[in-house]
Amino acid sequence: MVGLSFCDFAGTREEKAMMAEYRQKQWPRRFKNGSHLWSLALEKRKEGRCPLEPGEIGFILRAMGYTKETQIYVASGQVYGGNNRMAPLRNMFPNLVTKEDLASKEEIEHFKKHVTSLAALDFLVCLKSDVFVMTHGGNFAKLIIGFRRYMGRHRLKSIKPDKGLMSKFFGNPYMPWANFVEDVMITHQTRTGLPEATFPHYDLWENPLSHCMCRA
């Protein structure tokens, strides 16, 4: 998602060079010569079209009242920046696990034969979780929220952070923690996965209410 988003993220020169090479190879028409990406990335972040970073997710969850004892399951492949990028989230929530942590080597090897099988494992865990947090706007996360809504699991939280507003909050170094907590709570009172009324250009996978759900 980091590569596809064409957003800018902190990293070493080597990491940024690898990301630029990867983007140029995968999406040559969008990449061009890369000179336009910085201003584009800033605009996309303001509009809430960039994935949230692990540390940002940690702050949002702490503001919502989740304690450091909370178990966090990270549904992800290789993380850009590796362990260093995950460190802020792990420091706030030490009980951080992945499918590789929970499954034995023998169990996980069976699924490594197909990348989609690994994604399916993440999907099932997220589907059954007490709380699901959507950190990006990709189809994987949309399908999970939509499936939880459709199967009646909207009774469990599916948090969809307001990434644009969060970007504004995170960009204000003078914002007191108490104000941040209050604003996060108010902002996300209605962003917890309940079915929503649809509109002409809506995502069926994320919100199947109108055409796929019984209103009785």
From TrEMBL:
GO biological process: one example: fucose metabolic process
Pfam families: O-FucT
InterPro entries membership: GDP-Fuc_O-FucTrfase (IPR019378), GT106_glycosyltransferase (IPR052272)
Keyword Glycosyltransferase: yes
Record keywords: Carbohydrate metabolism, Fucose metabolism, Glycosyltransferase, Transferase
Superkingdom of origin organism: Eukaryota
UniProt-listed Gene3D superfamilies: 3.40.50.11350
UniProt key word Transferase: yes
GO molecular function: glycosyltransferase activity
Family annotation (PANTHER family): O-FUCOSYLTRANSFERASE 2-RELATED, O-FUCOSYLTRANSFERASE FAMILY PROTEIN
Family according to the record: Belongs to the glycosyltransferase GT106 family.
Name this polypeptide is given: O-fucosyltransferase family protein
UniProt organism field: Aegilops tauschii subsp. strangulata (Goatgrass)
Organismal lineage: Eukaryota, Viridiplantae, Streptophyta, Embryophyta, Tracheophyta
